[in-house]
């Protein structure tokens, strides 16, 4: 069955006008064109929708039954088109993103506040998850954009760098290291160390870099979240390292942050999305703000 919106629209106009001349004027069609359109619709449906005479035009019982259905179809069509237009114009829609906790806490809230102020009717679902999970969510199509560390070469992901972030030392307020202008990795790993658990990409990257400098990590405490790191350090349970973008969060927890050198460890932070899939208008707008 090949029924078109044009045919349904013609049927509704003719049913309401009960006159080919008036319906043609409303639709801006010639009478032969309207007659062919109605005939094609009737052929597709399998029977007549109008009872015609020289002086009158009436709906058949089947036409009477089809009329409310046709109105609903046109209304649904208009609604569907309106939804698409509103999505393109960012007047409505839903955006799913993923961000590693360090970025989700430190930088993303102000960006989302600006975005929501500009596009208040775009609903946002944020997955604030570990770096590896951000990559998986985007790769699986469960998030349109992800903010994470550079995942490396990948055929199915695009990575656009936002900035380079360096690791800093986090120590308790009364710790002897607070008297120094900066801390070395040798000093940090010799202390009571609090670290993220494996397989955190940050943990693995740190171990890889330190191995090149003949340094090893032996954590006294291992956790999953950077917020937990800050709290434990502030209570004097040990020292740690976090991305510099978490500096404010750590200081608000009561810890002291210091530059961490020898070696200086940096990682590229950026936005990822799938290679072969176009971004929605909402995702493009947020990407631009990022």
Automatic annotation (TrEMBL):
SUPFAM superfamilies: Periplasmic binding protein-like II, Winged helix' DNA-binding domain. Residues 3-60 form the HTH lysR-type domain. InterPro entries: HTH-type_LysR_regulators, LysR_HTH_N, LysR_subst-bd, WH-like_DNA-bd_sf, WH_DNA-bd_sf. The keyword Transcription regulation applies. Pfam families: HTH_1, LysR_substrate. Signal peptide: none annotated. Keywords: DNA-binding, Transcription, Transcription regulation. Belongs to the LysR transcriptional regulatory family. This is LysR family transcriptional regulator. It comes from Sessilibacter corallicola. The lineage of its organism: Bacteria, Pseudomonadati, Pseudomonadota, Gammaproteobacteria, Cellvibrionales.
């Amino acid at each position: 069955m090949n029924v078109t919106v044009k045919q349904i629209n013609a049927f509704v106009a003719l049913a309401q006008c009960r006159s080919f001349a008036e319906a043609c004027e409303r639709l801006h069609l010639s009478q032969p064109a309207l007659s062919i359109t109605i005939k094609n619709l009737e052929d597709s449906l399998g029977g007549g929708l109008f009872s015609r005479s020289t002086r009158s035009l009436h709906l058949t019982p089947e036409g009477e039954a089809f009329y409310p259905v046709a109105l609903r179809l046109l209304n649904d069509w208009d609604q569907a088109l309106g939804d698409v237009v509103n999505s393109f114009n960012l007047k409505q829609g839903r955006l799913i993103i993923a961000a590693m906790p360090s970025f989700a806490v430190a930088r993303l809230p102000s960006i989302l506040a600006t975005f929501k102020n500009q596009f208040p009717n775009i609903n946002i679902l944020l997955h604030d998850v570990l770096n590896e999970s951000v990559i998986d969510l985007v790769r699986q199509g469960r998030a349109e954009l992800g903010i994470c560390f550079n995942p490396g070469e990948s055929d199915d992901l695009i990575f656009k760098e936002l900035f380079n972030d360096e690791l800093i030392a986090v120590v308790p307020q009364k710790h002897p290291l607070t008297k120094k202008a900066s801390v070395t990795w040798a000093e940090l790993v010799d202390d009571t160390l609090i670290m993220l658990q494996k397989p955190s990409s940050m943990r693995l990257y740190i171990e890889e870099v330190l191995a090149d400098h003949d340094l090893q990590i032996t954590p006294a405490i291992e956790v999953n979240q950077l917020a937990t790191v800050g709290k434990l350090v502030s209570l004097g349970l040990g020292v740690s390292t976090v991305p510099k973008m978490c500096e404010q969060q750590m200081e608000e927890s009561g810890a002291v942050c210091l530059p961490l050198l020898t070696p200086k460890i940096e990682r590229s932070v950026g936005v990822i999305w799938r290679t072969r899939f176009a971004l929605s208008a909402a995702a493009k707008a947020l990407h631009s703000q990022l």
